[in-house]
Amino acid sequence: MLLSGTITKFLVFGSIVQDIISIPASVLLIILSILFIMKHDIRMLIIMLGLTAYFFYAYGLYTIQGQYTSIYLIYLAIWGLSIYSLIFGIIGLVSNINCVNLTKPIRYSIGIFITIILLVLIPAWIGRMTPDIISRVSGEVYGVFILDPALVFPALAIIALGVMRGKPN
Q: Where are the beta strands (DSSP E) in 41-144?
């Protein structure tokens, strides 16, 4: 990959780190899945959704950026499975959301924290994207600029609003 010039040293290093993180994360996800099947604990489902969101984002970047490696089809399969796992997991979570009660100060703290993330990242991403848009040349990590503004930022805004309102959206 690196020798052929298809992936830079920066992306190879990121891929290695991601694989190091993904292996224990996948083992934990398997263990939690087995426990969830046995106990149906909503807290396990929330943790599983967090891990699944990691796989969605991390492997979404690989597939969208076309980091064609010898295991690209595996990356694509992980990403596809994570999308459907998130959809079905969120549906399951929403149907059980009444069992999670947060006090108003905690809800507002979470909502404000998410809003601050958006207020910082949206201008930062626009600032990073603008030179690429002007030059009409995509940067090395353009997948971030696809996933975040199109999917992640709107989802975070909906979550922040729902948490502060105290209602699932």
A: none
pTM of the model: 0.68
Residues in contact with 130: Cβ distance below 8 Å, sequence separation at least 6, in sequence order: none
pLDDT at 60: 87
7: alpha, beta or left? (left if phi > 0; alpha if psi -120 to 50)? beta
Q: How far apart are CA 161 and CA 78, in angstroms?
A: 30
CB proximity list for 36: less than 8 A, separation 6 or greater:
44, 45, 48
CA-only gyration radius of the chain, Å? 18
No. of helices (H) and no. of strands (E), the chain: 6, 0
- 141 or 50, which is more confident: 50
Query: What pLDDT sits at residue 33?
Result: 92
**23: closest CA among 58, 49, 47?**
58
> What are the pLDDT digits (tens) for 52-72?
999 998 888 888 877 777 778
Query: d(Cα 3, Cα 8) in Å, to the nearest integer?
Result: 9
Task: For 24-74, give the secondary structure using H, E and C.
Answer: HHHHHHHHHHHHHHHHCCHHHHHHHHHHHHHHHHHHHHHHHCCCCCCCHHH
Average pLDDT over residues 85-109: 78
